[in-house]
Amino acid sequence: MAATSRIDRPRSLVSHIKHLADVDPVEARKFIDGSCDAARKRLGLRPAETKRTKRTARHGRHVVVATITDPVTGEERVKTARRRKAVRVYRYTADQVKKILAEAKPRKAEYKEIRTAALEALTSKEQAPKLRMRHLPRHTKWSKRRHRR
Hints:
The protein is α+β, with helices and mostly antiparallel strands. The protein folds into two domains: 1-48 and 92-129, no CATH class; 52-88, no CATH class. It is built from four helices and four strands; from the N terminus they run H-H-E-E-E-E-H-H. The strands form two sheets. Strands 1-4 form a two-stranded antiparallel sheet. Strands 2-3 form a two-stranded antiparallel sheet. A hairpin with a 6-residue loop joins strand 2 (62-69) and strand 3. Helix 1 (13-21) packs across helix 2, helix 1 (13-21) packs across helix 4 and helix 2 packs across helix 3. The radius of gyration is 22 Å and the shape is elongated.
């Protein structure tokens, strides 16, 4: 479960569902693809943050970089590398996720369970007091600010 102090931070829908309903990321992705995308489009919600990032391609997709000829044997070899691909990452706040979950209408029984578990976790976290770590010193020995001289 995610800490209550971090629930307001925007993150992907998969991360929200994964932490709130305590399911693995694959199930969370299937749930979102199945019911949350339609609900998000019906509401017309736009993500709180949109960023572009480069990620390594999944499933071992390799790109041919160069062909190398061995000077001794004359044999040609292909040099490959994993491709890095620019990807857009969409992040949503807890309030947006709550609206999406309230609007979602899943058909499968397991997706209905995921939805109810996530909604219950969201409402219980809203009612819980936010944790503040006031007992810790502001700048510790290993703090970055202290070493920026």
